[in-house]
Each structure stands twice: as C-alpha cells, then as structure tokens.
Amino acid sequence: MLNYFVYKNGQGNFFKPLTDAHSVLYVGFGHHWTRDGVQPAAIIDNTKAALPWDPDDLNHILFVSHPENRANHLLLTFEKTELRFWRATGEVRVATADEWRCASAISPRHPKDRYFGGGRVEEPPAAATDPSPFRVLPVEPVAAVPRDAIYTSVDSLASYQYLIRGTCRPLWRATGPTAAEPHPGVKGAMQDTVARCERLQNEEPFAAFVRLYLNELLHRHGRSEVRALELARLSDHAIDDTSALRIVLATMNPILVETAALAFVLDLELTPDIGVGKGKDVIDVRARASKADGTIDTDLAERVTKKLDAIAVRMGDLRLSQELRNNLMKRGVLDIQCKAADRAAEVKGVLYFGFKGKGAEGPDLLLLNDIDVLLAAGDWPNLRRFLAMQAQILLGTWPSAAAVTEG
Predict the structure, then answer these.
(1) Terminal CA-to-CA distance of the chain, rounded, Å?
(2) Could you tell me if 336 and 284 are in contact, meaning their C-beta atoms sit under 8 angstroms apart?
(3) What contacts 24+ positions apart, CB below 8 Å, involve 102-110?
(4) Contact 134, 94 (CB under 8 A)
(5) If you average pLDDT over residues 119-125, what whole number do you get?
(6) Is the pTM above the cut of 0.85?
(7) Is 32 helix (H, G, I), strand (E, B) or coil?
(8) Strands 3-7, 73-78: parallel, antiparallel or unpaired by DSSP?
(9) Which residue in 126, 113, 109, 141 sits closest to 25, CA to CA?
(10) 14 partner at 20 to 30 Å CA-CA among 206, 264, 306, 382?
C-alpha cells in the first residue's frame, strides 16, 4: 500500500530548478541530522525547545527516506502547473559543491544567504567547519500530472493549512471539506492504523479518498513499474457516472459548492451579482431578478419564489422564511451562503446551500445531501451539467491542456 507526504521544496517550491538539475529536494540548514550514516526509523525526540526544526517535519523526512520505507511512501510537490510524485533514493545529506552552486544561483537573496556566500557563488564550507551545512534529500521522479486535469478538491490541497505550514506532512490527516457522508467504498478503504501518526490512529475518510485518487493518477501517468503495481484505486469505486457523482458530492470543497450555487441561480433565471455578494460576511453568492435594462423583474421574482416553494414541498429540510420571501418579492434579491462543511451563521433571509452538519438547521436550508430530490423537483440544466462535468474530471475522461497540446 502506498502512502503520501506533501513536500515543500523551499518556500513556494522555489528550489525546483535544483531538483530538476540534481534530483534532490531542498531540506534546509540544520545540524540536527545523524552524521554516522544511520538514520532511525523510530520517532526522534519531540522536544520542540531542543530543535530549530519542527520535530514532526524532521521525523517525517527521516521516516520517508529510511531504506525500509522508501518503496511504500512517496513525496508530492504541488508546483505551478504540475503535481509531481517523488521517491526518496537516499538519506538526508550535505549538498555537494555543484548543488551548492546551483542553489546559490537560484537564490542569491535567500534568508540563509550567508551559507551561499552572501549571494556570491562560492565553494561550500566543509561540514566540519560549519555546524549547519546546507542539506538535501536525494529523490527520483515517479510521475508528473498537469494540475489542470486534477479534481479540484485534491488540487486545492496545495493550500491546505496543515500541509503548507511544514516541509513534509502526511496526507492521512487531511479532513474532508464537506459534511457529506463518505462514499461507502471509500469509507471501506480507510486504513485502521497509520504509521508515524500517534495522535490519530485511523486514516481520515477524505484522506482515504485522496490516496485512492492519487493511486489512480499514478496508474494513468506514472512510470511503467508504478502502473504495474496492484494498488487500490478510485476506479474500484467510481465505476460509472452515477457512482462518480456520489463521490463528487461527498468531496466537494467550498469552491465547488459555490460554483454549484452559481449554476443553481442561473437555472432560476437569476443574474449572479458576485461583486456585491462578496462584500458581505456571510453571503457567498448574491443573485438578482433583473430585466434586460437592469431594473427589477417582479414577475421573475414571483416565479423564483414559487419554484423554491415547489422544491420545499419535496425536500423536507427546506422551508422558506418570510424574510427570504420579502427579499425576493420586494427587492428581487436571493442571497446564498455556501459552506462545504458547517453552516457558518444563520442569518435571516439568506439561503444556506450546502451540506447537513453542525448548525444546519432552521429555515432556508437547501441541503446537497438531498441533491437527488432537488434534481428530480425541476429542470436544472446548468446544475446537472456542472455536477456531471465534475464527475468526468474525477473519472479522468475530461481532456487536459497537455492532451490538447499533444494532440
């Protein structure tokens, strides 16, 4: 079974040219590395006060590069246009003179530039004379996947706070962006125990989904020996459009939920007014019933109210408040709060468009947990297309920019 760590190759993956030229990832400057060639597989001392490094990151790098762990643990770097997979081929070591020169040329103004000769390309000092030499991790490329072809909820892990605040962080701690129930197949694939994770014994359901999806990407884009591995993959569960749609609904992040809400208001024939909506603390989408000349369309506002009433009859959790009705009928405005997880705040007259979770109670709830009921309650061409498109991206059937270029 493969597991994954997200690696930050210098701030913003700044040292990508060093990796491309010398097949090493940037580790940084520190003397808290073993010098005798023996790298422990066990967790080292976690006393933060004793280390300039975050001990978790230090432990993760030691662990993933240990000879016993390299085959089953890969590193990921989210770069500008690609998600790249790497396998450690050695232990952390002092950079060679050529690597030092390359790093110095890349970053003459690096915060640690005193180790690069103040910005001048110089020979690195000997390890014996410098207590904190420049360290690197030898790696080999396994796969490179265009980020434009990656499902949004996975691609957005590039900005996941826990992952980007460290140098080397495991994916199995990543919690899901929605309050939706995990897909049964994905839930069944969760690891009961995860190595190197004392505080969390089980793999998170969303992390299991990401692992299966990454395995799928490796099968599509990896080297031949990787594609030959018998890995559990997302396609074991996303076997058709319907099952893929269920997984999409269980993994939508805030960007996808908000875009679904935009499709929803377009199906209501309303005009999105994003600029105004974004100026409100709890409003993510604002739409207006507008005529061609920009004035309020009271007939459309009445039709939208009736359509929402019709949906409410079929969806048990949806009931319209008087405040929401007044906003539509008198102001021609529909305000929507889109949160992939819990309802941020109940504000009178604002429609909550998201998943049932903490705080998801009261009036004006349109829950995506009941999306089948919503789609069956009327004609929703834009919303249907958007969700179907996400399912195709998940399945890998939507062409990437690279595929178009190659064609």
Answers:
(1) 34
(2) yes
(3) 102/17, 102/18, 102/21, 102/22, 103/15, 103/18, 103/26, 103/134, 106/14, 106/15, 106/17, 106/18, 107/10, 107/14, 107/15
(4) yes
(5) 50
(6) no
(7) coil
(8) parallel
(9) 141
(10) 206
